[in-house]
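re: the backbone from monday

yeah here it is again, tokenized this time
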């Protein structure tokens, strides 16, 4: 099994050479003077050491030992507490947090790189700080000053952890039918009662307190999603001096026995009149929670990237060493009994697919991170609005496409190892199991596709899509004479086709609402391949500009991978387009009782 190594060379290429992150940061008020290329590089180096040397070695043990539940108490696997303490002391939990309350205030464009490394090293471990960071986002954006002063510093420091409590036994996607109640109390707090399931990190031994963000309804709340409010419910109440007080009636009824991410405690949480505090406005809880959810969905998408990268590293190391048969063109290593399997076309197909999709995902996550930074910090309102529109459009693509293709990469990586990929010692079967959840939680990928097609495209007549398309067209136009025709020409064709598909679904949906859902998954994937074509064209441009100084062959490898993507992977969009054009009728011709 190959030891995980943070892909720092490629991360630096994407940040510094493709997107010129330092120039962007210095142009954004709030980031200018806070971060520069040298500081960012030092942080990446430290994150690489931490993830590779401290967190990754716990991955297999965490899977085998798993989180354990005993009479409401959850224990994490050996080594997790010590690693989390080290992680927290380095400031990584509050990496992107508000400096006013102890966060480091780092840009999301840099944060996505750190997240990928943590996920690549150890999926289960990564989820504990990821949920805490998301909890902090919602609290910082919507909580009262008193709540922020009381809770954010200890959350950012990693002394306390956070969760998000949405799902109930009878409802997941349809949160409008939740039953958890919040009854107003004389002291201004609320008594929260109900059961939440699938709560990541709902109970554990990593921190001294756990802060739950809970969706609930007041007794007189309107029906449906318009009646949902958001509450902060601590495991231990906090005294006026900041010390921990009595245990709140919040208990863990059990933890789930899962296919993967076994060291992450996925809890059933029971709230029995627990004291809670309103975050934001009454009946506006979903608005507050979705501040957190958008970042969490990007984070879970990045889980797919991390899994794909880890699987690729093991598959590549194995393919270079495993000897089986001779190359089709004759012996490559005649002095040995056989050639390494990397000489075989099908093995190369799998490895190049993993490499092209993982590196494309890394570039796209960086791009989405840049738009989050722009939407938060840009001084010009029009530029901020463009960033917000792009974030709204691209978040479901990032979550779903990263996790779909990340899972595919893990399966490819397992296949490269053959029978050794199916046994535990090589780690590939664990990655397949761990990666699978990314397509399900934080809104299933089918729901992400429906969000992209319905709310983010059809509902606004393609307005968000036009913002993206205009940027890509401008790039195409600006690079007509840059020696990039082999990349620009297929990118332009893909964008034209995606624009046609967008208009087709919008038009058809006017007379048949089934067309939105019927097209949604294929549309998201067609969008994903087109977006990656944009990313790969930008990477090819950066690599080509530096190819004369290619001492280690990095840029040559980047260009070769770009060509593979455009010639072997981008054409997948054609079959996706054909499926979209077929419309919804084939889905509804078969009557329900004939399935």
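seq for it, each position gets an aa:
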């Amino acid at each position: 099994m190959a030891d995980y190594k943070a892909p720092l060379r490629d991360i630096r290429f994407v940040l510094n050479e493709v997107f010129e992150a330092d120039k962007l940061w210095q142009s954004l008020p709030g980031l200018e003077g806070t971060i520069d290329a040298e500081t960012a590089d030092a942080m990446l180096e430290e994150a690489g050491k931490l993830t590779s040397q401290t967190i990754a070695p716990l991955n297999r043990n965490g899977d085998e030992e798993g989180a354990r539940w005993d009479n409401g108490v959850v224990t994490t696997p050996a080594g997790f507490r010590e690693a989390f303490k080290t992680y927290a002391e380095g400031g990584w939990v509050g990496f992107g947090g508000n400096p006013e309350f102890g966060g480091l205030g780092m840009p999301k464009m840099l944060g996505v790189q750190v997240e990928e490394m943590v996920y690549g090293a150890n999926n289960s471990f990564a989820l504990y700080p990821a949920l805490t960071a998301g909890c902090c986002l919602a609290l910082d954006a919507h909580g009262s000053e008193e709540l922020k002063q009381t809770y954010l510093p200890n959350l950012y420091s990693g002394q306390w952890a956070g969760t998000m409590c949405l799902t109930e036994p009878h409802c997941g996607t349809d949160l409008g039918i939740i039953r958890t109640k919040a009854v107003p109390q004389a002291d201004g707090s609320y008594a929260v009662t109900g059961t939440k399931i699938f709560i990541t990190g709902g109970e554990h031994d990593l921190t001294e307190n756990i802060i739950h963000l809970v969706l609930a309804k007041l007794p007189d709340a309107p029906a449906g999603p318009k009646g949902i409010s958001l509450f902060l419910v601590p495991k231990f109440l906090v005294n006026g001096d900041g010390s921990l007080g009595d245990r709140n009636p919040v208990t863990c009824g059990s933890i789930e026995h899962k296919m993967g991410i076994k060291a992450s405690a996925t809890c059933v949480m029971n709230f029995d009149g627990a004291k809670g505090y309103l975050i934001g406005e009454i009946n506006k809880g979903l608005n507050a929670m979705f501040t957190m959810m958008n970042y969490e969905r990007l984070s879970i998408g990045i889980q797919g990237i991390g899994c794909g990268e880890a699987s690729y590293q093991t598959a590549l190391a194995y393919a270079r060493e495993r000897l089986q048969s001779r190359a089709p063109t004759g012996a490559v290593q005649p002095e040995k009994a056989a050639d390494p399997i990397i000489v075989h076309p099908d093995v190369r197909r799998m490895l190049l697919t993993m490499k092209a999709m993982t590196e494309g995902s890394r570039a796209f996550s960086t791009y989405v991170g840049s738009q989050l930074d722009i939407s938060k910090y840009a001084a010009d309102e029009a530029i901020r609005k463009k960033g917000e529109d792009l974030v709204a459009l691209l978040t479901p693509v990032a979550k779903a496409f990263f996790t779909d293709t990340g899972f595919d990469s893990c399966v490819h990586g397992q296949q490269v190892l053959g029978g050794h990929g199916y046994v535990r010692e090589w780690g590939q079967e664990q990655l397949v199991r761990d990666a699978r959840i990314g397509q399900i939680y934080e809104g299933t990928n089918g729901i992400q596709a429906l969000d992209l097609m319905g709310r983010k495209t059809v509902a606004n007549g393609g307005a968000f899509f036009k913002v993206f398309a205009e940027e890509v067209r401008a790039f195409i136009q600006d690079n007509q004479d840059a020696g990039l025709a082999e990349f620009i020409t297929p990118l332009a064709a893909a964008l034209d086709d995606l624009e046609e598909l967008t208009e087709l679904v919008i038009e058809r949906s006017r007379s048949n609402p089934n067309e939105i859902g019927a097209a949604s998954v294929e549309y998201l994937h067609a969008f994903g391949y087109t977006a990656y074509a944009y990313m790969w064209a930008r990477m090819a441009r950066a690599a080509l500009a530096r190819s004369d100084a290619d001492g280690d062959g990095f840029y040559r490898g980047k260009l070769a991978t770009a060509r593979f993507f455009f010639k072997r992977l981008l054409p997948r969009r054609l079959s996706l387009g054909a499926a979209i054009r077929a419309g919804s009728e084939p889905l509804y011709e078969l009557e329900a009782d004939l399935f």
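The radius of gyration is 24 Å. The CA atoms of residues 49 and 498 lie 41 Å apart.
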